[in-house]
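Supplementary Text 2. Reproducibility record for the structural model of the 560-residue chain.

All settings were left at their defaults, and a single model was retained for analysis rather than an ensemble. We include the record here because the model underlies the residue-level annotations in Supplementary Table 4.
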Amino acid sequence: MKLPRLDKGYRNLRRTRKIIGVFAKYGFAEIVDRTGMAARARLSARLRSRKATDVRPLNAPQRLRMALEELGPTFIKVGQLLSTRSFLLPPAFIDELSRLQDKVKPIPFDEVKIVIEKELKSSLDLLFNSFDQNPIASASVALAYRARLLTGEQVVVKVQRPKIIRLIETDMTILHDLAGMIERHLDEAQQYNPVAMVEELSRSMKREVDFMNEARSIEQFGANFEKVPTVHVPKVHWDYCTSKIVTLEYIDGIKISEIGLLRSSGADLKQVAHIGMQFILKQIFEDGFFHADPHPGNLFFTTDGRIAPVDFGIMGRLDDWLMDEISDMLIAIWRRDVDLIIRVLVDLGAFPEEANPQPLRAELSEFLYRYYGLSLRKINMKSIVSDGLDIISRHRLRVPSNMLLLAKTIGTYEDLGRKLDPNYNLVKEVKPHLRKLILRRLNPEKLAYESAKSLRDLYDLLRAMPREMELILRRMRRGRMAIEFQHRGLENLIQEMDRSSNRLSFSLIIASLIVGSSLIMFLNKGPYFLGYPLLGIIGYVFAGILGVGLALAILRSGKF
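Retained model, structure tokens:
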């Protein structure tokens, strides 16, 4: 039998207490108490209710952002995930969580050196011609250093922080437990499926902490832009890459967000805005493989006039099915076909098929006519995205996270484009790409392929149907036909019934021990201990131990 690791349990408990303490510090103790997490962690009421005078002037969204930043990488990713779920939180929270900063104080270089030499299986002096010990970037998961290879090439070495994987695993275990508690104790949160969100985050974090995934993404990204002369994707140095280290070509340029430096360098800001947006739109509407961290600081403008992306830790993908759904959505918007929009939302699982579509239909119609007929200069993509997210929030539509992230990315870069060029017109830039996407959906070759596939599926169905019908009729004749029922949504009820029955059984055992011991005491039967019947004393002791254990279990559950 596999025994539980005591050090892991202690580590989880200690981390849980820290998480609760931080949320309490920023004024969220009441929510923590409602989930029952504090009681489970045996946290004192004084610590749960403590106030932090230095954060009182801040509003709730700011306090939440600061709490997530203090708790580190896993919770920063939670905030970033929530910022793409506009239906979960009010706009003020979404806007604040979008500003989450993943910047952490660097660790001593000696610790980083140990990781590099262990992963690359050689000493630093034999691996690099020079290595700058001061990081050029320091995030919660990794640090980035500038170095020079033995061949003379300048590179950036991204090194994973020691023990960060263990911290993330601990946090994910705690978050999974917390999500389960939220679903059980907060009725208003059940519709958002917190457990599924944590599982999605867990998959994303596992991919992100394996730096080989990032190296492969850069290779694919480079292949997509190989024939685009205005984009330069940094080269991967595979001999210096492991699951904890990735080494890339050093990009000598100016961040596209540093407009003052761009202007002083003599760059044509209108051209920079055009090249940058074409770079973003190609990823979204042609490749279906895009940079999923919508931050303008991740784009550089090089001295030879090219856009160079960096930091490929989080990438998004749009499969053919989702691209087709986006095409249908765009066709519906172009034709102002509200019914087609609702059908696409149903296909995406965003809108329940059995729900009444009339309120949503009316609001979508008003939304489409609000922008229809406006000149391109009067259309602001950010306002369109904002109004669309408001509709999603009000009707609690569950739009796929990739689509929400796309909208967020386009809005972010439109803001940057307008800063570079006040007369910048995103809709004009997007229009040719939308046309390509729609034509892709209506491509005769693609339609022919889909039709052939559908005919093949129909043929397989017709071929299998007689055999399946024969089997069903045989089972019916022999009386072997069985109907299986599955319950939905009763898991929590069954768990509560099991817990209640166990407590009732324990109570009966305790009561029996007390009654039996009292009878032995009354009959005064030996053997004796200190003048009292020994069996009666043992019975009282066991009843006391079981009673204290039952009381502690009830207190920890937070339900009285």
